[in-house]
Amino acid sequence: VRDKPLKGKKVLITAGPTRETLDPVRYITNRSSGKMGYSLAKQAYLLGAEVTLISGPTTLRPFPGVKRINIESAREMHDIVLKTYENQDIVIKAAAVADYRPKNSAEHKIKKQPGEMVLELERNPDILAELGQNKGSRILIGFAAETNNVLAYAAEKAKRKNLDFIVANDLTQPGAGFGVDTNIISLVFPDGQIKSFPQMDKEEAAREILLVAAKHLNKTKE
Ligand code: PMT
């Protein structure tokens, strides 16, 4: 059990960006490569867990043994996550989910027109907040990608979304956040406690996050 603290546990990870369709050839997305979420899935598997990875479009391959479900839009991610959530022990939302989607997704390619074009957007569901409202004894972990007031925003999100903790990454630091192989993370707890780590490979960062999650799981199950 010491080297496999997640043996017999079910872990759900979300990873990558979402794609919000504008028309058959265009979409809105973000800079997430999926590396952080795929590292979490691999490390959770190596720590003994049964892992489901719900992934937006990436070029990555899941670690053998990890069950992957591919989605494109935030609404697709929402539906699958809610369906899969019920019997999980730990849920980690590393995906960068679009907060907005185009109000109208055109059936045919949108044609150029004279002058400016205004794009109307509407809100996507906040998946993490919904999970927080139905948390039960699960360990629920979010990510916060910020460019300013990183720790203050993260603590506020952890509290508001009813999380065990949130992983803050400061997007202004070169070795952290989107696309790169490393991250600089702080675990921010709803009571304001903070556990900060130096720059690490995303695989190492993933392992640290999972070890803290495993400790919390044992505490809540006692
Ligand atoms: O994929 P990589 O290139 O490796 O980059 C990793 C990462 C920077 C994407 C990752 O470390 C990260 O920070 N992911 C969360 C990015 C993000 O969308 O943060 P946010 O502050 O917008 O969202 C906060 C949390 O709510 C996240 O856990 C997110 O999954 C969740 N969320 C957000 C919006 C929404 N509609 N539903 C959600 O569940």
From TrEMBL:
CTP binds at D99, K109, P125, D126, I127, L128, F143, K157, K161. The keyword Metal-binding applies. One of its GO terms (molecular function) is metal ion binding. Its EC number is 4.1.1.36, 6.3.2.5. Binds 1 FMN per subunit. Residues 11-222 are annotated as: Phosphopantothenate--cysteine ligase. GO terms for biological process: coenzyme A biosynthetic process; pantothenate catabolic process. Its cofactor is Mg(2+); FMN. GO terms for cellular component: phosphopantothenoylcysteine decarboxylase complex. It catalyses: N-[(R)-4-phosphopantothenoyl]-L-cysteine + H(+) = (R)-4'-phosphopantetheine + CO2; (R)-4'-phosphopantothenate + L-cysteine + CTP = N-[(R)-4-phosphopantothenoyl]-L-cysteine + CMP + diphosphate + H(+). It comes from the Bacteria. Pathway: Cofactor biosynthesis; coenzyme A biosynthesis; CoA from (R)-pantothenate: step 3/5; Cofactor biosynthesis; coenzyme A biosynthesis; CoA from (R)-pantothenate: step 2/5. Residues 6-212 form the DNA/pantothenate metabolism flavoprotein C-terminal domain. Keywords: Decarboxylase, Flavoprotein, FMN, Ligase, Lyase, Magnesium, Metal-binding, Multifunctional enzyme. Catalyzes two steps in the biosynthesis of coenzyme A. In the first step cysteine is conjugated to 4'-phosphopantothenate to form 4-phosphopantothenoylcysteine, in the latter compound is decarboxylated to form 4'-phosphopantotheine. Catalyzes two sequential steps in the biosynthesis of coenzyme A. In the first step cysteine is conjugated to 4'-phosphopantothenate to form 4-phosphopantothenoylcysteine. In the second step the latter compound is decarboxylated to form 4'-phosphopantotheine. In the N-terminal section; belongs to the HFCD (homo-oligomeric flavin containing Cys decarboxylase) superfamily. This is Coenzyme A biosynthesis bifunctional protein CoaBC. The chain holds residues 180 to 401 of 401 of the full protein.
